[in-house]
Amino acid sequence: MISSKKIYIKLFSCVLISKGYSKIILIDIQRKDYYSLSVKYSTILNSLQTGLLISQIDKEFDSLISFLREEELIFNTTEPFKFPAISTSMKFRNIISNVSLIASEYTIDYILDKSFIKILDSLMVEAIFIHINSEVLNKTKKIVAHFSSCVARSMELSLSNDTKSINFYKSLVEQNPRINKIYVHNSNSQTVEELYHDSFVVYSTKKDNLFEKTRSMSKDYLQINRTLALESHHYHTYFNRKLFFNERGEIMNAPECKKSFGNIKNIKSPQDLLNIISLPEFQKYWYINKQKTAICKDCSYKLMCVDERLPYPLNDKEWYHKEECNYNPYIGEWK
């Protein structure tokens, strides 16, 4: 008996559509891959997101459908409503996700104070990045041990000089298994070595200028994951929920920011820090998503991009960057 049910073609829910000025990117967040397509397919792709009757698909789209089917981005179904699109709404369990700090002669005693760990733990911080200046490099093991009890799930270290052996770097990971990367500056080589499973030491010949702007956006820096893609709909994916303590102990949103909101020496309780990071001015850049940013709003890579450039107000509703990106969304080409 022949079934009378209507057959629809639908994009898998894990496939997100990112439309730019000159092209469309399909992002498979499950398999961490992406596909570039012409903007002429915009209407049909939007229809495939909810489900499109096979009988309604014009012959001119046969090659597109064949490609999508070959890449396993679409499937047939008689009940498209049972496969809703991924919701873009987001709720965070913490106000700060990432903390970066510089261990210097000035900040070291405050960082090693037991109360500092408790204060960060109260914020339920997920990741910690610590750059250790040369003058306190001899305190590296003490710092690592101090942070071994924190609630953060991951930790990265940055050392200003390459004066230790590979066994020393391994001992740091043994001491604190949360460490997944150790960056070593002023090295004689530009290499990466595996320490243990999922932990690496990254050697760099660059000087100890960690937060000097040296990185330019390229395809190599694009990231594919669900959290980033969804976060990009509402927030600035670099500045959102970030906290930075510089070598003078000044409290800022990120190294790229110019305004200080206090000093580590005055943080005596979780509430002291919470009062600072809750300020609207501290969170100024958090809500500047790509749709509110000139040029970025027309980029098809906007759901995969973590942009470190500081945004500046263009008008009452829009922002812009003074530094030009390496990708031009209007011609669809990288430099």
Would you give an account of this structure?
- The N and C termini lie far apart (58 Å).
- A hairpin with a 2-residue loop joins strand 11 (192-196) and strand 12.
- The protein has three domains: 8-82, Outer Surface Protein A, domain 3 (Alpha-Beta Complex), CATH 3.90.930; 98-277, TIM Barrel (Alpha-Beta Barrel), CATH 3.20.20; 291-334, no CATH class.
- The chain has an eight-stranded mixed sheet. Strands 5-1-6 form a three-stranded antiparallel sheet.
- The chain is an alpha/beta fold and 335 residues long.
- The protein is built from eight helices and 18 strands.
What is the tally of beta strands? 18
* Helical/strand content category: alpha/beta
Question: What is the gyration radius calculated from CA atoms?
Answer: 24 Å
Mean pLDDT over the residues:
93
**Low-pLDDT sequence parts:** none
Form type: elongated
Please write the CATH class name of the largest domain: Alpha Beta
Per CATH, which architecture of the largest domain? Alpha-Beta Barrel
SSE series: EEEEHEHEEHHEHEHEEEHEEHEEEE
Using the coordinates shown, work out and report the CATH topology of the largest domain.
Answer: TIM Barrel
Keywords for this entry:
335 residues; alpha/beta; Outer Surface Protein A, domain 3; TIM Barrel; 3 domains; 8-stranded mixed β-sheet; 3-stranded antiparallel β-sheet; 8 helices; 18 strands; 23% strand
Structural topology:
Layout lengths: L7 E4 L3 E5 L3 E6 L4 E6 L3 H9 L1 E2 L8 H9 L3 E4 L20 E6 L4 H4 L2 H9 L4 E6 L7 H7 L7 E6 L6 H10 L3 E6 L7 E5 L2 E5 L22 H6 L10 E4 L5 E2 L17 H8 L33 E3 L5 E3 L5 E2 L4 E2 L1
Parallel strand pairs: 7-8, 7-13, 8-9, 9-10, 10-12
Antiparallel strand pairs: 1-5, 1-6, 2-3, 3-4, 11-12, 13-14, 15-16, 17-18
